[in-house]
Amino acid sequence: MAGAAALPRDNGEIAFAAPWEGRAVALALALVERLGLSWDEFRQQLIAAISEMPERPYYESWAVALERLMLAQHLTTREELDRAEPTERPVL
Amino acid sequence: MTDVGSPSHGHDHGHDHGHDHGDPHRPEPLAPVEARVAAIEAVLTERGLLDRDALDEIMAHFEDDLSPLNGAKVVARAWTDPDYRARLLSHGTEAIAELGFSGPEGDHMVVVENTPTVHNLVVCTLCSCYPWPVLGLPPRWYKSPEYRSRAVREPRALLAEMGTDVPTDVELRVWDSSAEVRYLVLPERPTGTDDLSEAELAALVTRDAMIGVAR
User: Fold this and answer.
1) Model pTM?
2) Cβ–Cβ of A57/B10 closer than 8 Å?
3) Domain count, chain B
4) Which of A83, B16, B112, B177 pairs as cysteine with B120 (C-beta 3.0–4.6 A)?
5) How large is the average pLDDT for residues A55-81?
6) Does the residue B22 lie in any domain?
7) Could you tell me if B75 and B125 lie in one domain?
């Protein structure tokens, strides 16, 4: 498999390639806690998102899982999320 | 930053902008997933389900409180205190909490010890779950499809490629994290360290050894 022989040993402690990745992790944690869900409910969405697209970058699957959790909990609709997307990078 | 494990970044731009992040005057365009995460945050905030301060606190907690330095302290304590070691191996969560480390992804900790005849390796094949309280956030390679599949299919070859040779007379046990359990490897104490303090010992413990890709 391409890249398998060169698994990077990234000993630098930067865990996220971009701020949105860390934000996605924090959002998942905050949402699960706020709704009183079990972490496993998010985890099941993550497992499904990863298995359906194994080569998708990890945190993109994470974001998909988070969106699906919100939809499953009837917190939002795809259309509402579409409308809420910014066109410029938000200042975090 | 190169991303060896991920061939696609999900960008659907029509041009090849490469991944050279060197130009400060033209920041990389907003990626679709980035916009989606921002939308999620906006909707949750509007719904009153998200407190921006809470989010910042969580992120600060990850940066400040969670790292492999925590696990290293646990290991060093186990190396120097046989009673603690026994508690750690039988009741991992509680023993780790004795040192002040606990929280999400650390609620059910099982610590597995390396010995002269057993080497342990940890993976989460389904979702890369990882014991945050003792190791912080997982490294990129741990989340890759390659690691997740090869750790169970051909662990010895995988470890050899990562620079760790496990002799054939040493049993290699692979632990696949489940919905509940998170694993931490207790590496063997290096020889010639009898005179070191607990803090000095902790400095010898690497994250990779606590995952099991190093000895």
Assistant:
1) 0.84
2) yes
3) 2
4) B112
5) 96
6) no
7) yes
